[in-house]
Design brief:
Blueprint: H1 2-11, H2 17-25, H3 47-57, H4 59-74, E1 79-83, H5 90-104, E2 109-113, H6 130-143
Parallel strand pairs: 1-2
Length: 176
């Protein structure tokens, strides 16, 4: 996190990934810009901003506080994949979410992929996007149950592959 924060200091006023989270989740600061969750130099967390994020956007908190209302629409419909070596420790958050949904009777499906990070979670064999394509196919079958599917390949015939969904003129990602 320190390296990521230092890189954002170099990027200037609009920063990068961390700043983008603040633009989405933070209250406005006195200057009208999003309040920083933490000081990029010292690492000190702003407890007011952290409390705001938790009360407005923390999924576990929202589920606990609103399950009676939203639970019937979510029960059995949450499927999450995460690597056990997630680069940003999202596997810890996934365990917390799983525990909460188990307590609430959410009937969620969690798949923890051993030795996968934030950046290789979709890889299966030589295919960098195999899991992405599988998830896309499964979502398509739920959204369009009457569309038919290919039993041999387990991919719906109308689901474009990951490469086919790229915008014209964009380059595919470089091999790892």
């Amino acid at each position: 996190m320190q390296q990521l924060a230092q890189a954002e200091l170099v990027l200037g006023n609009y920063g990068g990934q961390l700043a983008s989270f603040e633009w989405v989740f933070s209250p406005r600061g006195p200057d009208g810009r999003p309040a920083q969750l933490f000081n990029r130099t010292t690492g000190d967390i702003d407890p007011r901003v952290a409390a705001y994020w938790r009360s407005h956007y923390d999924i576990v908190e929202r589920l606990k506080n609103n399950w009676n209302t939203i639970g019937p629409d979510l029960k059995g419909k949450i499927h999450l994949f995460v690597g056990t070596d997630d680069t940003f420790y999202l596997d810890g958050a996934a365990h917390s979410l799983q525990s909460t949904l188990d307590q609430l009777g959410g009937e969620a499906q969690f798949t923890f992929l051993p030795d996968r990070s934030h950046f290789n979670v979709y890889v299966q064999g030589e295919d960098r996007y195999a899991l992405f394509d599988r998830i896309s196919s499964e979502m398509y079958r739920v959204a369009r149950p009457d569309s038919g599917s290919c039993q041999q390949c387990s991919i719906s015939p109308r689901v474009p592959s990951h490469d086919e969904t790229r915008l014209p003129g964009t380059n595919p990602p470089r091999p790892e």
